[in-house]
């Protein structure tokens, strides 16, 4: 039986999970593949991190460079995270002719346009299933299973922390800060939650998915990003009254020669299957012109689910090595020569429906003035909800609009602000009507 | 650019859809793969069937044998269906060293134990993604993405016709016969619906999934099968009162050295994501020890969704051919030497919860007698619903039991029948409590 030697960089959560699968599932994997996928080295600055793993002597090391330079190792698995050391080690490993597996969405969305061509030139595979959607095989599905489809759109719940927070806010009526603090205490959110709750993590993932779905260069800078900090239980309740659920969605759509790419709190109909995805789970719907829509659903993060995706990449590459077929599938789904720069539609040109919540002064004519300002910018109101609640001199005034252009909405909101009849900035949540038939 | 020549057998719904993708997406596919996947021939006894396709002269033929024997064709796509001619042509194509793509679940579940080893001996790939779940990449996901997981269970809505009928019965309160007739009139059900509504089609699919999930020989004969003909709107309504939805589920679970494998109407909690899968859509949840659960959801049948899966298989094999890597992934997910015969748990040894509806005579003591008979066979009742409805001298009496053994249930029901206090056979529906956390 052929043996493929693996070196893992980083023995944190996902690194130790990956090592555990390779060690404990060696027979299962060889029964399935006929390959002895062998963990030769695992490097971490803190060598005690491997102490719970049944490692043979010499497998754990603090010398990541030696792992990357080891001529017996064919596949380097980068699970350090971050964009500096990880990039350095991956680049060095590629130079050494090693194949790469990584879960590092931040790195790939920032430097993928350098790293993927580098790997292609050197003739090595660079696999990253675990970087998006944890154990859900979203990369493989788009790249291989939908190969005969022109992809139309992607709609995903791609950040477990946000979904966990919004689910609890919905179920319990708690405020964002309260749920975040509790999530941090329970390990469901990072001490610095910015990357998650401000939408950047989902944007990293969406930038990667867009590249493989549409055959475009990775374009993180132009993804519109808005987090969930301003969402309140009141908005969630109003949304429910209208039949909607609030989710942080990552959305991209192929339009005329451009791609919409945006991450923001979104109201979706209760009937949309994504509305049923709760807690830290992830789900993503991909539309293709042959399949209509396919949805994947599962754990988008966590030790073993993510490690499972890493191992699927390791095995894919090991099979390529044994069959002499590295490069069998272009890393970014398209041949490098076929990848184009496709513009991202500026958010100002988005047409969508909106939920607006104003904190209106309790004086006559406010509704008419707001409606007038919206109307003068071509924004039609579909429904209004003014619950009989008062906060001092103010009352929440909620409107759901028909489709409108974002630039018009901005102008209308500026006009409304200038009228001095509302306190605070309004809460603006985009509504996604298309549920893809699922 | 390398060219791979394709021959399609059968220009029916899926065959013409596959041809259409190959013809219309040639550039997209070559942009993605660097391969010219070329439709060389398509055979059908009725050559007029290709008339809507933009076929070059000589591509359409009535001579399937000539396609299978054509030395320039590397991949044969069998979309004839049935188990006689299809088997003959596939066998001949394998003998000729050609790689095979098929969507024929009936053939594979009946003769896979012969055909797969034949292909392996001849060193050709035999791919069948489209045979289960239409466009959902369930075969690829189990075989490749979950390669590091011991699979625990599969729960799926795998027959679109049954799901369509049950969804409409649920939404509209119509009777089975009425919805079936309407479905037949609208092309959602076959003229002879037996294969679908009696559960056999789902059983074919489950037998294939079990093989790749558990590394077992294909064992269709031992899959327990029960269709949806006896389900009434009344049962669906009672189920809803208890918080359940009725679905035809295909269920398999790895137990101690055996595998549960069964297809039958099943009550699942409204909270279970599978309960939200309506119409002709399919969905399947797979549990693995690393991922917990992954769900795929999409069109399980239909022209273009199924053709999309066929094309993904064609491209997979084309990539293998260009890279000299046929056999890269064992067709049945395990190396032939590692495939074992795993017994299927006899249905009598199943332990599950039950819904029972008796048509009870309106006389005193009936409930107590029925409860007594159940109790004497170790079956405990969790709840009872006796709506105040009367049908002549009878009234429906519904019970939900705690977990019980199927053999005990049969004995208890025989005892109850012997008491002559119920009319007709009771309606018995198994309840699936585990939603896999999804």
From TrEMBL, chains A, B:
Binding site for L-homoserine: 190
Family statement drawn from the similarity comment of this UniProt entry: Belongs to the homoserine dehydrogenase family.
Enzyme class: oxidoreductase
UniProt binding sites for NADPH: 105
Record EC number: 1.1.1.3
High-level lineage: Bacteria, Pseudomonadati, Thermodesulfobacteriota, Desulfobacteria, Desulfobacterales
Gene3D superfamilies, sorted: 3.30.70.260, Dihydrodipicolinate Reductase, domain 2 (3.30.360.10), NAD(P)-binding Rossmann-like Domain (3.40.50.720)
Identification of the protein by name: Homoserine dehydrogenase
Annotated binding of NADP(+), by residue: 9-16
Domain ACT: 355-430
Keywords for the protein's UniProt record, in alphabetical order: Amino-acid biosynthesis, Methionine biosynthesis, NADP, Oxidoreductase, Threonine biosynthesis
């Amino acid at each position: 039986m052929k043996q493929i030697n693996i070196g893992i960089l980083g023995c944190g959560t996902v690194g130790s999970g990956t090592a555990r699968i390779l060690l404990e599932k060696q027979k299962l994997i060889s029964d399935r593949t006929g390959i002895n996928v062998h963990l030769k080295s695992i490097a971490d600055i803190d060598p005690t991190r491997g102490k719970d793993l049944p490692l043979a002597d010499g497998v754990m090391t603090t010398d990541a460079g030696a792992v990357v330079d080891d001529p017996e190792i064919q596949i380097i698995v980068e699970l350090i995270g971050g964009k500096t050391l990880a990039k350095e080690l991956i680049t060095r490993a590629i130079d050494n002719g090693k194949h790469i597996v990584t879960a590092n969405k931040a790195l790939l969305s920032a430097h993928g346009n350098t790293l993927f061509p580098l790997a292609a030139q050197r003739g090595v595979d660079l696999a990253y299933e675990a970087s998006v959607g944890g154990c859900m095989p979203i990369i493989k599905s788009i790249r291989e299973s939908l190969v005969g489809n022109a992809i139309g759109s992607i709609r995903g719940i791609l950040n477990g922390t946000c979904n966990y927070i919004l689910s609890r806010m919905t179920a319990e009526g708690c405020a964002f800060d309260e749920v975040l603090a509790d999530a941090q205490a329970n390990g469901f959110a990072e001490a610095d939650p910015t990357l998650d709750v401000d939408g950047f993590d989902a944007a990293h993932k969406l930038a990667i998915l867009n590249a493989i779905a549409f055959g475009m260069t990775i374009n993180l800078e132009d993804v519109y990003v808005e987090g969930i900090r301003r969402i309140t239980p009141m908005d969630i309740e109003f949304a429910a009254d209208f039949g909607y659920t609030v989710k942080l969605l990552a959305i991209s759509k192929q339009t005329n020669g451009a791609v919409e790419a945006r991450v923001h709190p979104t109201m979706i109909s209760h009937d949309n299957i994504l509305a049923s995805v709760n807690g830290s789970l992830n789900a993503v719907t991909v539309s293709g012109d042959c399949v209509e829509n396919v949805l994947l659903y599962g754990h988008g993060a966590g030790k073993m689910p993510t490690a499972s995706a890493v191992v699927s990449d390791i095995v894919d590459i090991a099979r390529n090595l044994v069959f002499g077929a590295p490069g069998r599938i272009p890393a970014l789904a398209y041949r490098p020569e076929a990848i184009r720069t496709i513009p991202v539609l500026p958010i100002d040109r988005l047409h969508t429906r909106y939920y607006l919540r104003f904190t209106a002064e309790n004086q006559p004519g406010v509704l008419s003035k707001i409606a007038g300002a919206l109307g003068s910018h071509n924004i039609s109101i579909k429904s209004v909800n003014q619950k009989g609640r008062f906060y001092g001199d103010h009352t929440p005034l909620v409107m759901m609009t028909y489709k409108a252009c974002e630039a018009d909405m901005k102008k209308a909101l500026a006009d409304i602000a200038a009228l001095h009849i509302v306190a605070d900035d309004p809460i603006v949540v985009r509504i996604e009507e298309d549920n893809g038939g699922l």
